[in-house]
Amino acid sequence: MNQRIDVGTVRIGGAMAVPAVLGRLGADASSVCAEAGIDIRLFDDPDNLISNAARIHLLNLCVSRTG
After folding, report:
1. Quick check: helix, strand or coil at residue 3?
2. Dihedral sign for Cα atoms in the order 25, 48, 57, 14
3. Which candidate, 48, 26, 28, 30, places its Cα nearest to that of 38?
4. pLDDT for 4-43, tens place per residue?
5. Residue 66: CB atoms within 10 Å
6. How do residues 46-64 score in pLDDT, each as one tens digit?
7. How far apart, in Å, are the Cα atoms of 43 and each of 11, 25, 33, 66, 67?
8. What secondary structure does DSSP assign to 10-43, as a single string?
């Protein structure tokens, strides 16, 4: 794979467990992702890219929605 990676982006692979963890904590992963402006299908492939800012925003929402 010869994909150009911007320094402001990372592979989603490091966050692949987020939807499952949200579910175990009683939150709807699709809703939390949508609120963060992230398509849940991004988690379909660990090589998909996400900006650092979007990942941080998602993780902050995860914390606020699950306590």
Report:
1. coil
2. positive
3. 30
4. 555 688 999 999 999 999 999 999 999 999 999 999 999 9
5. 13
6. 999 999 999 999 999 999 9
7. 10, 18, 10, 19, 22
8. EEGGGGTTHHHHHHHTT--HHHHHHHHT--GGGG
